[in-house]
Amino acid sequence: MKLLMFKHDGDARLGALRPGHEDEVVDLSQIAPDLLALIDAGEAGLERARKAASAAGHGLHLKDVTLLPPLAAPRGNIIAMGRNYQKHAEEGKEDGEVKPPTIFTKAITSITGPYDDIAIDPLVSDKIDWEVELGVVIGTRGANIARRDAMDHVFGYFVLNDISARDIQFDWGGQFFKGKSLDRSSPIGPWVMTRDEAPDQQNLDLRLLVNGVLKQEGNTRDMIHPVDDIIEWASKGMTLLPGVLIATGTPDGVGHYRKPPEYLHPGDLMETEVAGIGLLRNRIVAAKVGALADHAHRGA
Ligand code: MG
């Protein structure tokens, strides 16, 4: 099942693509108010949602519906992997040294919708970059999860563009958290595909286009730490709660390591796809003059 959140009469509602008619959205707000509540309802909740989606005789046309982030406020920070694809680790090597994968977090306030514009204030960052990734939603709470049991803790999958402000990421001695946490910068969705219906998560093609030009192309089989390994490591002595999101890393082809480097500018359109899961489409727009600009004008 492809579960989503959509806007209806100004309210956010839980929905799903209608099974067998995926150009339609079925309203599941009678089952749960949002996706986090549905995840918390466990297998029984999911079964009710499946039955309701299958029983619906018709739905709203997907093209007439505004999709919201499937999980606008997941639990905890987003857990994310850096350098989890060998060729991406190599393109980012410093002084000839290829660093191993690392684990970091993104603030949940960085989340935005699957087709939303991304407003960036150039006074905050002028080095905005793209990263196509497979996202994982945790469904079942667990700590010290063994790799062989890890997939039982997965609720489903989504597409994520781990938008990165490279100037901020490498400032103050270098840190991922702030550079990857600008407000409403990172689209997720368009829906969460439940694990039972998802294809093999370690054999998915990923690609990202900017203005129709292919920038990233990879496959999840090339992850250095596959999803089960990430869950084992992330849960070591640290509980993973239902509704936690994991960003599993990006393949090579990001803008920062191109020669010369490339960054996003107002008007640029990104298409971010994990084949078999979904596609995000987001345009960069110039932010209205922000607080920093006001401050600068006062200081001048
Ligand atoms: Mg990333």
Explain how this protein is built.
It is a single chain. The protein has 300 residues and is an alpha+beta fold. It contains 7 helices and 19 strands. 43% of the residues are buried. The chain binds magnesium ion. Magnesium ion binds next to loops.
Short summary:
The protein is an alpha+beta fold and about 300 residues long. Helix content is about 15%, strand content about 35%.
Structural class by helix and strand composition: alpha+beta
Number of strands: 19
What is the molecular shape? globular
Secondary-structure element pattern, one letter each: EEEHHEEEHEEEEEEEHHEEEHEEEH
The residue-averaged pLDDT reads 94
**What's the main sheet like?**
12 strands, mixed
Q: What percent of the residues sit in helical stretches (DSSP H or I)?
A: 10-25%
- Evaluate the radius of gyration: 19 Å
Low-confidence stretches: none
Counted by DSSP, the helix tally is 7
Ligands: magnesium ion
Taken as a percent bin, the fraction of beta residues is 25-35%
Distance between the termini: 55 Å
Structural key phrases:
alpha+beta, 300 residues, twelve-stranded mixed β-sheet, binds magnesium ion
